[in-house]
Amino acid sequence: MKVLVAVKRVIDYNVKIRVKADNTGVETANVKMSMNPFDEIAVEEAIRMKEKGAATEIIAFSAGPAQCQETIRTALAMGADRGVLVQTDAELQPLAVAKLLKAVVDKEQPGLVIVGKQAIDDDSNATGQMLAALLGWSQGTFANKLNVADGSIEVKREVDGGLENIKLKMPAVITTDLRLNEPRYASLPNIMKAKKKPIETLAPDALGVDVAPRLKVLKVEEPPKRKAGIKVKTVAELVDKLKNEAGVI
Amino acid sequence: MAILVVAAHDNKTVRANVANAVAAATQMGGDVTVLVAGKDCDEAAKSAAAIQGVAKVLQADDAAYANWVAEDVAPLVVKLAPNYSHIVMAADSVGKNLAPRVAALLDVAQVSEAIKIVSPDTFVRPIYAGNAMATVQTADKIKVVTIRPTNFKAAAGSGSATIEKVGGEGAKGLSSYVGAELSKSERPELTSAKIVVSGGRGMGSGDNFKILEALADRLGAGLGASRAAVDAGYVPNDYQVGQTGKVVAPDLYIAVGISGAIQHLAGMKDSKTIVAINKDEEAPIFQVADYGIVGDLFQIVPELTTAVEKK
Hints:
Number of helices of chain A: 6
Largest interface: A-B, 79 and 89 residues
Radius of gyration of chain A: 21 Å
Largest sheet of chain B: 7 strands, parallel
Helix content of chain B: 10-25%
Shape of chain B: globular
Largest sheet of chain A: 9 strands, mixed
Distance between the termini of chain B: 45 Å
Strand content of chain A: 25-35%
Mean pLDDT of chain A: 96
Helix content of chain A: 25-40%
Order of helices and strands of chain B: EHEHEHEHEEEEEEEEHEHEHEEH
Mean pLDDT of chain B: 96
Number of strands of chain B: 16
Structural class of chain A: alpha/beta
Oligomer: heterodimer
């Protein structure tokens, strides 16, 4: 079974983002970029499936500017076999990415697609579900545990109030939650090996996909700042403030 | 203009956040219809009809809808969609699972986790874990919007809408529900609790959460945790407050042994009053806390529990 994983290039998890002065977006010049953490979990899960013999080949997909090659290389260094980059400098929104993914899925015919549940930049939490819809496939969102068995996949999902178990007919789209696994670091020899692994580059046009954004971003602003309060010395003082100043207990 | 709110429910009552979604829908303008798709869900439909501002409830009773399988519910929403300008859901685990599937089937974008309705086609939503706010405008004919419940005051419960039955679409056979492992708790649900007590890595162990439980019980509070505490295995994952967990905005949020990573702050910084208890006076949590107390949580928390009157 082929497994396709999608990896997004985002501002690194540890970077404190800055809103551009002209309110058109977030400053990305000279900012460290990394693979979306949820997508690392997707890559890791695919590699574990391959190690267990459930997967035969792992294809790492990304869409965006040429630098997304680096993100794909990271996936290849972790253990993916080859990459597909849909290269465009256009702004890509979840529906467009889902359509690009669908086009590549139609071509590659994987048995499973694993994507992160959300990207930590736009926080949309939509691409996986949209892809499943476009393909007419089942969806296992917010996956905490997966078990592939005979044409179906059991998914333990993180839901409000606990966990839910579902069984999906394959092919399926899975979106990863935090606790599905702990992604490995790529070893130096594997980073070197990854340089030789193939990455196919495609254009959205060649896939027949219109990637024009549907949501127009009118402005991006700083959130209202909470001002720091005061430090109290004793519990008695804290209780007094909560009762008589804040009125919350 | 008419708006369809898709309600999550347990077939007996709709979730509390449906009233928040109705409030958000009302701000978008137009008559609000609530869809209750379930199995033997008469009671849930009645509870939806009682929400103020709801003009009509559509009840679809079908075995396929018993457990919120998105693959089965989405086609029903899509069938109803052409009659509406907006499809609105609360951004909980049901809405996040279902709404994007509906949006893609309609070939429209989704506006995820709107926190403010600027106009019928323009919404404010947080990005980058709430470190930036984007105002987005959609040109799609049918607008699929999930809303963050804590940002909309729940509609009152004095309505009396009519209930209309609609046919179900049956099961697609793509996905089947096996069962759930839900955390059993007598405490208020995190996202609707008036007070939330949360613990972080500073708790040191799952066992130590007992002192937070005692405080939470004394205050009638919900119990939460930071990602670090969940990852360390101290508490189950559904306790997690933050960018990728639950978003809460209680009247009082007490953060205990939580350093205050931006991903955690994303989930609680809209709380009315924030208290931080941490031994590290440089911890970022103090930058958002109204009241901070620096010291040993194992001493302060029991003292606080004793000091507050039982609710």
